[in-house]
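Lab meeting prep.
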Amino acid sequence: MVEQQEASDDAVMTRIGQAIMLLHGGDREEARNRFGALWAELGADGDALHRCTLAHYMADTQDDPGDELAWDLRALTAADGLGAAEGPGGGEGPGGARAAEHRDTPAVRAFYPSLHLNLAADYLKLQRPESARIHLQRARAAAVSLADDGYGGGVRAAIDRLELRMREE
């Protein structure tokens, strides 16, 4: 039964990955359709990593900044549901006991800088600079946990670019 669940989880991530490839290939509409169908299948009780990943990328398929913000907030809510975030004082976030048991907690934790960066960009588009600053600070604080690799460097560089853009406005 555990093997069947793991295979099922892999299938969901594969389907999410296929939709991400469509998105990165420029087919936003088809990616949005596939993400929407997957979101409906997962439901509110679906795996938090799946919901977080899906909502994170679904936000990028949106044409309206308000819709993009809504999907980015769903991604953050899914990540918070796992309790993967540690607060500035080092304590566990909500659901910490569940997070300690979840095999994907490091993957979700690695999402936090990008999740907050996207929220900062969303709020900036919606002309809410104070909210943008709050999420940019959270992105920078969460980025300290990223590895010093291509992904971590890319996220940190994106944080720096958004911060510079906000200073210039």
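Slide two material, second protein:
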Amino acid sequence: MSLVRVHNLAVSLDGFATGVDQSLESPFGHAGMRLMQWFHDTATFRRNVGEDPGDPTPDDAFAARWDQGIGAEIMGAGKFGPPGWEDDASWQGWWGEEPPFHSPVVVLTHRPRPALTLGGTTFHFLDTLPRDALEAARTMADGLDVRVGGGPTTVREFLAADLIDLLHVAVVPVVLGRGTSPWTGLDGIEDRFVSESVTTPSGVTHVTFTRRPRE
């Protein structure tokens, strides 16, 4: 069966994966780009936005894995747009006419709307539970893996439902003080996984959790 993977989940030293007061102007809230600057400096990101990728960095060894073998993504409403986007029928996401996913994407929202195709990406808006969303995404993925792309609340829900096979967390050396944690209510979840960590010259520690064989 295909795997369910999380990649490039950036978390601050105090455990927050996004800030407060998310808006159209501030997709990560008061955190700004502090959590994701390491990713924006990688050849993977620069290539995806049409820039000269330059030389790969040690962080790129992790960043580049995000689309390898992926056939579909699942994301929460907060990743698709700022608070209130469901009330705007013209909202098409943050990414313009050519989103970087190039695959089917399931958007979890309590306000479903018709599917939206932009470039090589089709967004499907579903009001459903994690396990049912995964079943739909697996059908769309055509045998490839499914990525849970975030935000942190969605990742937490899939972890709580024991649906994640691989989890890559980038621990970034910043302190946010407040925000949304992906770990709330998940005490002891590390026991499900084998973990390994690598710290790069940027100061980011990449922690990879691989699911132990299910009994």
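Talking points for slide two:
DSSP finds six helices and nine strands in the chain.
The beta strands are 4-12, 70-76, 104-108, 116-118, 121-126, 145-150, 166-172, 193-199, 205-211.
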